[in-house]
Amino acid sequence: QVQLVESGGGLVQAGGSLRLSCAASGSAFTYYTAGWFRQAPGKEREFVAAIRRKTDMPNYAESVQGRFTMSRDNAENTVYLQMNSLKPEDTAVYYCAAGQSSYYYGAQYYAYWGQGTQVTVSS
User: Fold this and answer.
1) 3-46 pLDDT, tens per residue?
2) CA angle, residues 31, 55, 53, in degrees to nearest 5
């Protein structure tokens, strides 16, 4: 069992930055594939970024490539999502997730989810 708690969301102007954190408890994060997803009102949950288990190599959705950076701190058992050059279309609830599969792109590969944190980007 893994419990996930996100933090760091908020309101920011377009072009600004935010850093999201996801702290895990109950198990070591490194044994899981960690992912970030987001869901905007009226839209389906979509993949943002992931680090597969036992690796430190992040993978990104095309829409955030070059603007977002995901990292993992094994000592803190926490993953981060640094979001730069934010756009209004990045506005969504951001969710942290963990799963035991090496597949990372779909939400179906993740068994554990945080409660979500709101990110709002104003134009």
Assistant:
1) 999 999 999 999 999 999 999 998 888 899 999 999 999 999 99
2) 30
Q: How far apart are CA 37 and CA 92, in angstroms?
A: 9
Task: Tell me the three state secondary structure of residue 31.
Answer: helix
b or e along 64-88 (b: 16 or more beta carbons within 10 Å of the residue's beta carbon)? beeebebebeeeebbbbbebeebee
Give the Cα separation of 90 and 81 in Å (integer): 13
Q: Which amino acid type is present at position 54?
A: K
**What are 88's two structure tokens?**
């209004």
Tokens linked to 108: 């179906």
Which structure tokens are listed for 27? 């198990």
Run of H or E residues at 25: strand 18-25
DSSP strand pairing (10-13 vs 117-122): parallel
Q: What is the 3-state secondary structure (H, E, C) of 71-122?
A: EEECCCCEEEEEECCCCHHHCEEEEEEEECCCCCCCHHHCCEECCCEEEEEE
